[in-house]
């Protein structure tokens, strides 16, 4: 076994999108930076989540849109070309190789140490390499934990032995299971039910709650549920799983016993019921923290319970917003903060300042790639009222929008704008319908910029486009 020691200004643990962006920003600030990764550079999002899942969903949604266009329906009749879809997914994830990511790190002069990194006291990280060697890394200024999350599995009898699928297995599967049970009603569950039903699986969804997509406007989950059922998904709400067993060896059937005693049999079962922080084996105990915990941070992403402010936690591990784009946003800010402090520059912690992630609480955008799509940003009506705001909720059915009629025959969907009456600004927006993801950035800009509703009246949408829904919402608001 060989031991080496190296010193850098910044050590980043985890080379997913978040860690890469922290390293990019600290390097841009002139700080020597090393990044530690035990798997593939690019992390969960690039290989087992966002990228492969959208590669699976894109042909599904494109075909759904085409089927709504008169004159085009017959051209897209028949099943999807499953081998072509899976091959495209494999291309998107570079066949689970990370040479391009390594080349990018080299291009920005960030060092890489492959292996499992663990904290070993203040500003110290020990890496065990795949060859069994040990590399000790010392940080002059900061260590950033960017290890993300993994799928959380509930404590259900027989589950571990049944080898359930998580988001990793479902996005990297090499073949279509004939019968697939999906447990959960959140984003991963509804997206993967959409994709694999279209690819040929008989899908049964088991949802403990009373609806899909909790935390969003209720109509979003209702319209997605309607779309799933129309696609042939057996959606069962208010249903709990009591136990799981796999019969007949590794390739045997999965037997699912429900809370009411009924049983289902499937080829595979996906559990998509939440995420857990990847902090259980990164040496938190050496700096006075509890392994496996979420890491609480101050507004500049320093871990609150660690003295001297050298430890940062960025992205999913801080449990603020568990989304890739928001983690990258945090990373850009955290990297700039680390650079400013290391270089003796002032830190701007004002609202919407360059060193505070204000959007984490006020303007988080998200798209759910189902049929219909769901696009949201900012507060729901319930969240705004819970905060004590005086709000007005404005709804519009897309059938009154000429651009939506042009987009697809029978375009079905709904839009909602939440207006803060005291400030006269939009604080939240939700769009549900085909292709509404492309409406989201305009809504995000409106919320972040705090544009007065009266000024939005002068932002004229082109005719005939789906974005005319903004005009319909504003017309309703003005009365």
Automatic annotation (TrEMBL):
Co-factor remark: Binds 1 FAD per subunit.
Gene Ontology terms for molecular function: dihydrolipoyl dehydrogenase (NADH) activity; flavin adenine dinucleotide binding
Domain FAD/NAD(P)-binding: 8-323
InterPro entries, A to Z: Class-I_Pyr_Nuc-Dis_Oxidored, FAD/NAD-bd_sf, FAD/NAD-binding_dom, FAD/NAD-linked_Rdtase_dimer_sf, Pyr_nuc-diS_OxRdtase, Pyr_nucl-diS_OxRdtase_dimer
Keyword Nucleotide-binding among record annotations: yes
UniProt-listed Pfam families: Pyr_redox_2 (PF07992), Pyr_redox_dim (PF02852)
Intrachain disulfide bonds: 45-50
Required cofactor names: FAD
Gene3D superfamilies: 3.30.390.30, FAD/NAD(P)-binding domain
Amino-acid positions noted as binding FAD in the UniProt annotation, renumbered to this chain: 54, 117, 316
Keywords associated with the record: FAD, Flavoprotein, NAD, Nucleotide-binding
Coiled-coil region: none
Residue numbers binding NAD(+): 184-191, 274
Gene Ontology biological-process entries: 2-oxoglutarate metabolic process
Domain Pyridine nucleotide-disulphide oxidoreductase dimerisation: 364-470
Domain of life: Bacteria
Family assignment from sequence similarity: Belongs to the class-I pyridine nucleotide-disulfide oxidoreductase family.
This protein's name: Pyridine nucleotide-disulfide oxidoreductase
């Amino acid at each position: 076994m060989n031991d080496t020691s190296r010193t850098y200004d910044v050590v980043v643990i985890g080379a997913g999108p978040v860690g890469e962006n922290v390293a990019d920003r600290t390097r841009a600030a002139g700080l020597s930076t090393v990044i530690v990764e035990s798997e593939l550079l690019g992390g969960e999002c690039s290989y087992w989540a966002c990228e492969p899942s959208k590669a699976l969903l894109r042909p599904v949604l494109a075909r759904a849109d085409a089927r709504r266009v008169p004159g085009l329906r017959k051209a897209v009749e028949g099943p999807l070309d499953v081998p072509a879809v899976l091959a495209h997914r494999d291309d998107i994830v570079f066949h689970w190789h990370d040479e391009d990511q390594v080349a990018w790190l080299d291009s920005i002069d960030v060092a890489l140490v492959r292996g499992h990194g663990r904290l070993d006291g203040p500003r110290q990280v020990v890496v065990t390499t795949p060859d069994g060697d040990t590399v000790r890394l010392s940080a002059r200024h900061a260590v950033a934990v960017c290890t993300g999350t993994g799928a959380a599995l509930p404590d259900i009898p027989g589950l571990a032995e049944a080898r359930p699928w998580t988001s990793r297995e479902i996005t990297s599967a090499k073949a279509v299971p004939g019968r697939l049970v999906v447990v959960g009603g959140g984003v991963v569950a509804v997206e993967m039910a959409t994709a694999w039903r279209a690819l040929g699986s008989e899908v049964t969804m088991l949802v403990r709650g009373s609806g899909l997509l909790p935390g969003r406007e209720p109509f979003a989950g209702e319209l997605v549920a309607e779309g799933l059922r129309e696609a042939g998904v057996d959606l069962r709400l208010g249903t709990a799983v009591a136990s799981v067993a796999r019969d007949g060896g590794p390739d045997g059937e999965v037997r699912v016993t429900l809370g009411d005693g009924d049983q289902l049999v499937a080829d595979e079962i996906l559990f998509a019921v939440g995420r857990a922080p990847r902090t259980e084996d990164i040496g938190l105990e050496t700096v006075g923290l509890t392994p496996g915990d979420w890491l609480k941070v101050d507004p500049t992403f320093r871990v609150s319970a660690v003295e001297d402010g050298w430890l940062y936690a960025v992205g999913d591990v801080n449990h603020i917003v568990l989304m890739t784009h928001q983690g990258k946003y945090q990373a850009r800010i955290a990297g700039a903060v680390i650079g400013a402090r290391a270089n003796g520059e002032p830190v701007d912690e004002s609202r919407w300042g360059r060193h505070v992630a204000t959007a984490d609480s006020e303007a988080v955008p998200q798209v759910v790639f189902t049929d219909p799509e769901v696009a949201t940003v900012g507060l729901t009506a319930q969240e705004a009222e819970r905060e004590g705001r005086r709000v007005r909720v404005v709804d519009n059915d897309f059938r009154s929008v000429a651009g939506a009629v042009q987009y697809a025959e029978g375009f079905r969907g709904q839009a909602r704008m939440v207006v803060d009456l005291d400030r006269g600004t939009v604080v939240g927006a939700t769009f549900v319908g085909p292709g509404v993801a492309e409406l989201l950035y305009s809504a995000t800009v409106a919320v972040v910029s705090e544009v007065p509703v009266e000024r939005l009246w002068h932002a004229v949408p082109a005719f005939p486009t789906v974005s005319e829904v903004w005009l319909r919402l504003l017309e309703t608001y003005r009365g």
